[in-house]
Each structure stands twice: as C-alpha cells, then as structure tokens.
Design a protein that fits this description.
- This is MADF domain-containing protein.
- The protein is α+β, with helices and mostly antiparallel strands.
- The protein has helices at about 35-45, 60-75, 80-100, and strands at about 1-5, 10, 15-20, 25-30, 130-135, 145-154.
- The strands form three sheets. The chain has a two-stranded antiparallel ribbon. The chain has a two-stranded antiparallel sheet with strand order 3-4.
- α2 crosses α3 (about 80-100).
- The longest helix has 23 residues, at about 80-100.
Length: about 150
C-alpha cells in the first residue's frame, strides 16, 4: 500500500489511482467500459429517473440523487465522480448523434436511427430535453437579429 498523504492511501492492486483536479485529490478506478458494461450502465441510469427526469419531484432531491449515484458507483466499482462523468459523456455523445441526424440535408435519405450503439438506449432523454428558441437583439448599426435554437433541460 502506498501512502499519498497522511489521510489518504491507495492500494495499487485494486486498480484505483489518484488524480488531482485543481487542488483536490480524487481517486479513480482504471476500468474498461465495454459495450456490454455501458449498456447495463445506461439501463441502470434509465431505471433511476431521479437522475435524469427533471419533470418529477425526486429530481430536485439532491440527497436521493447522491444516494443513487453511490449505489451505481458501488455496482460498477468506481467513484461517484466517474459515474457523473460517464453520464455527462453519454449525454454529450447522444446529443451529438442527434444533432447529426437533424442536420441531414433534405433530399438525402432520412435517418431516424443513429449509428452509435447507445443512441436508441438513451432515447428516453428526448422526453426531458426540449428545444428552446433564443433571439439576440439587433445592434445599433441596424444588423438583423439572429435567431438560433439550442437544446436545454427545462
């Protein structure tokens, strides 16, 4: 066992190692996310609506969400930080894939299904992610106002 500080030690044979994020030292595990493991992870995430469904009251209960994150972290033998990062990365990849599908030019064959293996598994996120229209005001020199759409959680 290697001593990292007076309050923190880590065993190298478990596959955990320390990283510094800013001035905070975190312990992460050296884990391979296979397609099978990621698929199971997504199913667990889907079965935990307090983590993703902002339309339910439990979504605002931080203690409940932290307990669920700890439970998932224990199941996958990693840290809560890694679970949060995995969720963030999966959601980002899902939205990137969806944006690709939406930006297909007219005249080409319409794709309704993403090529990424987890696209359909994460399609439950479409129910809680809404498009919000934003506008910017015209500048003093008479430029037209810009209108854009972006995806956000409401």
């Amino acid at each position: 066992m290697r001593q990292l500080s007076t309050r923190f030690s880590v065993s190298n044979d478990v596959g955990f190692y320390p990283i510094a994020i800013g001035s905070v030292l975190h312990v992460v595990c050296d884990m391979e996310w296979t397609i099978e493991k990621t698929t199971l992870f997504i199913e667990d995430y889907h079965n935990s609506p307090e983590l993703w469904n902002n339309k339910i009251a439990a979504y605002k209960d931080n203690r409940l969400k932290n307990d669920k994150l700890k439970q998932i972290a224990t199941k996958y033998e990693c840290t809560v930080i890694e679970v949060k990062n995995k969720i963030k990365n999966l959601r980002s990849a899902f939205h990137r894939e969806r944006k690709k599908l939406q930006s297909k030019k007219s005249g080409s064959s319409p794709l309704t299904k993403g090529k990424w293996f987890a696209f359909e598994l994460l399609s439950f996120l479409l129910d809680v992610d809404k498009h919000r229209r934003t506008t910017s005001t015209a500048s003093d020199n008479g430029e037209e106002s810009a209108v854009s759409f972006f995806c956000t959680k409401i």
